[in-house]
Amino acid sequence: MIETVIPFVIGIFCIAILLNLYRLAIGPDIVDRILALDTLMINSIALIVLADIQMSLGILFEAALLIALMGFVGTVAMTKYLLRGDVIE
Description:
- There is one protein chain.
- This protein is mostly helical.
- The chain is built from 3 helices and no strands.
- α1 (2-26) packs antiparallel against α2 and α2 packs antiparallel against α3.
């Protein structure tokens, strides 16, 4: 059952990533682009986890955690720069 569902869900996440890339390129202002980049990060993490489940490796979960950490730090740094003009106080 899971062997038939995972490729379908991977396809849906690929479509979501394409829509995020569209919002990232066409976004009306910088806030929409930051949110699109954050959502793109979340979708790519989900895609990595689904690929790991499909291939039964178990090692890509650690890579997904590292990408999630870097995505969080990047989002915080971008919003801090947007609000204050600098990242380090």
